[in-house]
Amino acid sequence: MSVCLIRRSLFLLTLLFVVGCRQRAAPSSAPPVQTGGASTTAKRPIGISVLTLNNPFFKIIADSITEEVKKEGYETILVAGELDVAKQQSQIEDFIAKGCSAIVLCPCDSKAIGPAIQKANTADIPVFTVDIACLAPKVKVVSHIATDNYGGGKQAGDAMIEALGGQGGKVVVLDFKQAESCLLRVKGFKEVIEAHNQKNADKPINIVAELPGDGLLEKGFKAAEDALQAHDDLAGIFAINDPSALGAYSAMEKAEKTAQVKLIGFDGQDIGKEAIRDGKIYADPIQYPDRMGKLTAQSIIKHFDGERLPAEQLIPTELYRKADGEKDPSLKKAAQ
Question: In Å, how far are 25, 132, 135, 225, 262 from 252, measured between CA atoms?
Fold first, then answer.
């Protein structure tokens, strides 16, 4: 065999070896790249972890997101932290392991959820928060979609002033300090009450306690029961959502104080609206979980399409009183 022929054979063998190695290296375990709109690759699911599914408000948010992203070919994985931040952190890790295309969170704890979001950031999975923001440092959230909770809190303050008829009195707040949204509601409420007191020093509204209702019926009952026992002349209660407000009303019934104490809630769920119509709750700043879910879904798709989004997108509340409930066709008829 000539030297030239030997060299040519060695060159062909080397070429075949290199090509073969490249062909074996081609498959990757990395999830396919996502795009909005039409795509030839399979679209990875969107992970959703809400605060709880025991509150219909969060179910509406999740269902609205699912319905909207389905139009673009995306499925969702829906779970709930059920007020347990450790459980929610584990859910986020599971979303990462499954290669979700995006993660949506209603954080169980606005600060403690930070490390789990950082893991999603490291995995290059976009994170969106809805209703409850993340307050932890050094985390990246694409956009936070929520009610204007601060503005709603101010409306709740206006409603309390209205309900007390300018007479002033002692007021208790049933809060939920782990949730940023509820902190904003209480902040807005307090500011309005303080401004009122500056102009009405002779008949002030005094916030005598802030108690943990945690947004739950049973805890709202216990907190209100304690408040009523500590303050026999209590004039008002502001609860940060409808379940805790309805728990408070049960405590007011037990203490036979329903005529004395004016109750302000927040949310505008059907159970809250019915309670307003029936005179149990004086008023609610109502929010729109369906709009929040839809806007969250639309924001995810826009992000996939490369569109830059605002860091925060807020939806205003509206104050809902008894007269609104009496003409609301969406409510079931009051029990006779």
Answer: 70, 29, 35, 7, 10
